Amino acid sequence: xxxxxxxxxxxxxxxxxxxxxxxxxxxxxxxxxxxxxxxxxxxxxxxxxxxxxxxxxxxxxxxxxxxxxxxxxxxxxxxxxxxxxxxxxxxxxxxxxxxxxxxxxxxxxxxxxxxxxxxxxxxxxxxxxxxxxxxxx
Amino acid sequence: xxxxxxxxxxxxxxxxxxxxxxxxxxxxxxxxxxxxxxxxxxxxxxxxxxxxxxxxxxxxxxxxxxxxxxxxxxxxxxxxxxxxxxxxxxxxxxxxxxxxxxxxxxxxxxxxxxxxxxxxxxxxxxxxxxxxxxxxxxxxxxxxxxxxxxxxxxxxxxxxxxxxxxxxxxxxxxxxxxxxxxxxxxxxxxxxxxxxxxxxxxxxxxxxxxxxxxxxxxxxxx
Lengths: 137, 222
Description:
The complex is a heterodimer. By secondary structure, chain A is an alpha/beta fold.
């Protein structure tokens, strides 16, 4: 069942591929949804488990990491490390009674302007279907 | 180092379900090195507990603090002004830490946040392996620097047993037979004959079998 509320989403984006993709998207006049908050990082390998947990603690409904392709990561293994940490947070979310689909990793390249915007919409739609994270206090 | 692994968050949430003021207490010793109980992990567990508590409808205060060590009285003294602000303390030190805390702060409710495993080291990033059983009488010099007490499933001193096959222990293909390693090492060092010397049954009274242990070094006692 679709939920009409606007989910709050935090996106950690690699500064080596996402800005160039964002520029292409802008030139194509494709805009990001306004409920996706972008946090640019020098490399997705720097994103710690705590960084991925904090948005949920502070009211986010979904989190995603957008980084390089696995075979062309600028810092070789950054996106692989991020993928493992996201997998770990999925388990933590499950243990806390939340859906693991609330966090995801997406791969980008600097040339994929469309994809940069599409994954934001994909995540918004996914989280809208799951509904907001219910905090009772 | 003492190697530990995190308890499942679900188990910790259940342990502290009746408390709304919780302190997560880390340790900068062994558990920081094995990435289970340092300040980073205290932050992650505190964050998870805040999410869990808020989801259950409780107004919650989850604090986090990391001590230099939890196995020395002078360091656990550091929380004396803080600990009474909390109903429960989750210690993510090895099993020593929560016990020292419980002894020093008898009124506090102390909970273990990790499962302590063994004494060992990191063989790769993220992979640890047992090396010492703390038997109290080290004999590794007889065995090429390899410990058959900790690393042989049967702790044999005159091995290998019949369960050794292709360098692996019969309990699992993932477990190396330390006696295979010992024999190969002594062959390399051209002193295989050393193994012909019979090792009599070990005196286990210095190990855990002799009951809880205590070490007194008079030159250090004040």
